[in-house]
Queue: 2 jobs
Job 1
Amino acid sequence: MKAIQIKEYGTPDVLHWQKVEDPAAPAAGEARVHLMVAGLNYIDIYRRSGNYPESLPFPLILGQESAGIVEAVGEGVETVKVGDRVAYCNVLGSYAEIAKRSHELPESMKLSFTPNKISWLKQSALLKNMVQIWC
Amino acid sequence: MAETKRITEEYGADLVLESIGKTTFASSLEAAATHETVVCYGWSSGLPDPIAPIDLVARSLKIAGDNLVNATATREVLLRRANDVIEGIRAGWLNLHIDSVLSLQQTAEAHKRLESRNSIGKILLNITA
């Protein structure tokens, strides 16, 4: 798949579009999602520039908000099925064509059902920003 | 802050949602009406300068903090709240403003736009473009 990776902290110039290995088939409790839209969040800027208090391994795929279609699920996954439209946030790796997500994560980071009558763009944007304000 | 005072005829805001941090926190406190609350949930301009508790006393203000993880701690709550928002968008009373849509290849450009602070609303990356 293609993804945006960083191999060092720095300006936007460290964001490189390149071919990377596809995520492996989902293990138990995981789902693999074909991503359609990713949202930018200011935390992405902090992480890219190294100004966020955490230590993450390079190379790194940033981005923590996305929406897409479930393309495979691992053993024991019951909350989503192949073909479901889903949205998630607070998990790194959304600057990519495919992402793998675990159901071991806290509830708000999990994949969520979303109805078909809302656009991919709105679906991606609403979870982190609008639901957070709504709460 | 001045605009809030103008619109409310000097009363102030019943609730201030503060996500910018360093550059806006002080004016957010000023914009809140007496007895009302400022909720902090982000710091896109950096962490705000510290204040002393006495700064809250004169107008009986309250400061609260929140984040999405705690506010959607169970799947039931997450789905209920997400569906409230989705229903609002579908019904039209809630407007989701999208600033711009770029391709995934244009992520660096999207970062520059967000950092420039000229964007208003959400910047999205269309991964299928």
Note: The first helix of chain B runs from residue 2 to 7.
Job 2
Amino acid sequence: MVGNTAQVDQLELQRRSSSSSSTSDASSIADPSHTLIADVPAQKRRVGLNKRTWIVVAAVCAILVIATVLGEVLSKRSHKTTSHITPLDNYTSNSDRATAVSQAFNQAWAGYYNVAFPSDSLRPVTNGSLNDRLVQLACATSRSRLTGEQKWLGRDRHRCPVDGTDHGKR
Amino acid sequence: MGNDEVVQQILDFIPRIDFDTPSDVDRTISLFESTIRYVGGLLSGECGTGQAFLTANHLKAHDLLSGPLAQSFPTNESTLTNILDQAVHLAENLKVAFNTSSGVPIGRLLFEPPRTNDDTQVSLAGAGTLILEWTRLSDKTGNEEYAKLAEIAQSHLLYPGPPEIAEPYPGLLGTFIDVQSGLFLESSGGWWGSDDSFYEYLLKMYMYDTERYQNYKEKWTTAADSTIKYLASHPSTRPDLTFLAIYGGTGNLTFTSGHRKSLKSGRSSLILSLTMI
């Protein structure tokens, strides 16, 4: 009984506005669409004989179009919401890189811990260490690169920010 | 990385570090390096014992063992206390550096016993890259002395004098400061070794506590705006690249670059992100 009533309402709407049912409620016409989809081949054979059938077919097409559009919009919206709540972090989206970094660290740490810990320097060829806890090797190697800046300022600009020795790196 | 073994190796070692005895008694010890590497490293690893003193805002600043590792690597209170105790021990040895008439620290110390050397000046980065670690130490221990020492030093950099020498561009400062008067001695500077981490810490202090250090954000944005306005330039052949000049004073720019300028891209993105606040 409900299905019949809905079908009548739909037809009434179609008569009032000859355009497709943009103002109709999709849920109220769900039942007739289902019964008619199954009968489409039979109706095609009777084309031209039943004007009422034509109107119903048009209504079904309109419903399908509306359902498709609505479905896309809704799925996009839900996708956006989901990605906003749980963005992929770098460990997940670049797991290969993360694993490579982890492996590189573990290898370096293991080598250092086994032969040099807690000294500052490891001798990779002899697998030994240097008692160098306060020797700043970095300063000697990088000093030459700043010659131009030093000249310009007329003083040694490559100094440690605090103590004036040349190893300061932040 | 889930490597609990390495974490345990380091935790076992920390209490055994001797922060009193240098291997060479005549060699100076850097306040800056000791602060950012040892004190900062210890504090960022430890957490917990001082939380009663923290405001809600501070609690957002998780440290390693109480934050990311809390679930996978549970630590007991004594482990955390050991780490904090070492940070306090080192800071107690270093704090003599602030014993100048202005409060701006001397950058080099000697140990056994802890004392400063005879430096008369310190760099902008040397005096201005301490506030985060020393403040954090106070917030964790409840002992305000450390933060106060750093704040007094920092005040000479936030409100620098004399203006015509100290601040050649709005928010961009000179490099060397007289430790007794707290006044700037010259007007050269830029985003490089002796200066850059001062600007970096302006931003970090604001991020550490957005209410307490609101004025640090103002200082940062002033420096960032001046950097964009006065120091940025683009090679004619590569307009997509941005370089920052160094300066010898107002209107005295040198367009040079060095091996550390790659830092710019990172900080530039910080500039951009902050301008949106």
Note: DSSP finds seven helices and two strands in chain A.
